[in-house]
Amino acid sequence: MTYSIKVDNVSKKFRRYTDKRNTLKDKVLNLGKQIVKEDWILNNIDLEIEKGHAVGLIGRNGSGKSTLLKIMTKILYPDKGSLTVVGRVSSLLELGAGFHPEFTGIENIYMNASILGLSKKEIDSKLEEIVSFSELGDYINQPVRIYSSGMYMRLAFSVAISVDPEVLLIDEVLAVGDSAFQNKCIEKIKELKGKGKTIVIVTHDNSMVEKICDRAVWLQNGEITADGSPREVIMEYMGFLSEEENKRLIAVEDVSNNAGSSEGEISTVEVIETSDVEGSSNKRHGNKKVEILNVWFSDHLNKMKKNFNTGDTMNINIEYKVNQNCESVIFGVGFVTNDNIYCYGTNTHIDRSISIGQLQTEGTLQFRIDKLLLLPGVYNLDVAVHHENGEPYDYLTHAYSFQVSSEIKDVGIIRLEHSWEMKG
Ligand SMILES: Nc1ncnc2c1ncn2[C@@H]1O[C@H](COP(=O)(O)OP(=O)(O)O)[C@@H](O)[C@H]1O
Ligand SMILES: [Mg+2]
């Protein structure tokens, strides 16, 4: 195989300084006594990436993904082992890196593209293309310090692809873009890949890895834990995450049970946080005549759970409080994928299976799914309570997330129950 990137037995350590001196006098008198610790952040990484391949680098925070990308970009050097990269490298690392805040978008394009190796003349000829790809409009003449992170990303991505790199390295930054721009980036990355460019992308968005990559590599504690087809590696990683998450939930539950909640009752306060999905936006609106206090997920025994398998029973428990008496109340739920595809939504009015007349001052409404047919992924839940005439009481969008794993290898968002039959 013709490789484009070869990481050969690379290890990287960082020094960590722990300063045990407290007073200024101590600090002045004991200059030499600062304690230095060395942490090995990457250990014996062997990775050969074929030219024209796209590789997704996945793993938990702190697993060493960014460090590995920086080594590939040659911003950092390995302490052991060696690295070979063939061809011009362009990278999108931390947002805003390489941008000068007081310079305008245009000025930053010139600065950035020249760092990436383009001459002034080359940049002149590509300027229009870069600006138009970024869709920044008049902002392109504003200093970048007023840019939102999404706008930074647009500019950085547009410049990075304009230099016609052989190797494109992208660290997590795409998540800050809106979904339309993200899709545009994905299309562009696919196009580059089609032209034989090599791509390494770090992301927490599994669907992006599946859409773009030929291969996924899972880093854990600075080591490669799995390397192979995106589906399989993601599945393994999700399985691991879901085990970790369940361990954490059980630990939290134990703590809260020991803290004296009555037997059988599940205390939930610490568990459900607002979405921890990177790049998702959660919003809330409504007059709170009826307020959603908490939403939590549980299994068929009503034990709290956040990670499900396709086919599991899932209960969504909506805890509410009535602040002002109201009639004709409707509760609704909606399921949205991480890349904002609305999968399913319904409410108590559409369903007509439950009529909600006068509400108690406080209570829990349970939405029960006997067989959850969503395919693996991270999903966000919208929960709403409103009046029949549409008056919003409390609307939470993308406020709660849960995860689905599966051994089944179907592709898509939902599993359609089906059978095959040969008809002659
Ligand atoms: N410049 C640095 N100095 C010291 N420690 C660092 C430095 N950069 C990263 N680290 C540490 O290396 C580990 C891996 O970081 P990183 O590569 O950023 O992980 P990831 O991108 O997977 O979240 C973390 O524990 C982080 O604190
Ligand atoms: Mg990182």
Q: What is the mean pLDDT?
A: 85
Give the CATH H-level superfamily of the largest domain.
P-loop containing nucleotide triphosphate hydrolases
Low-confidence stretches: 259-280
Q: Which class best fits the helix and strand makeup?
A: alpha/beta
- The name of the CATH architecture of the largest domain is 3-Layer(aba) Sandwich
| Tally of structural domains | 2
Give the bound compounds: adenosine-5'-diphosphate, magnesium ion
- Along the chain, the helix and strand elements come as EHEEHEEHHHEHEHEEHEEEEEEHEEE
Model description:
This protein is an alpha/beta fold and about 425 residues long. It folds into two domains: about 5-230, P-loop containing nucleotide triphosphate hydrolases (Rossmann fold, 3-Layer(aba) Sandwich), CATH 3.40.50; about 245-405, Coagulation Factor XIII, Chain A, domain 1. It contains nine helices and 18 strands. A hairpin with a 2-residue loop joins strand 8 and strand 9. Helix 3 (about 105-115) packs across helix 4 (about 120-135), helix 3 packs across helix 5 (about 150-160) and helix 4 packs across helix 5 (about 150-160). The protein binds adenosine-5'-diphosphate and magnesium ion.
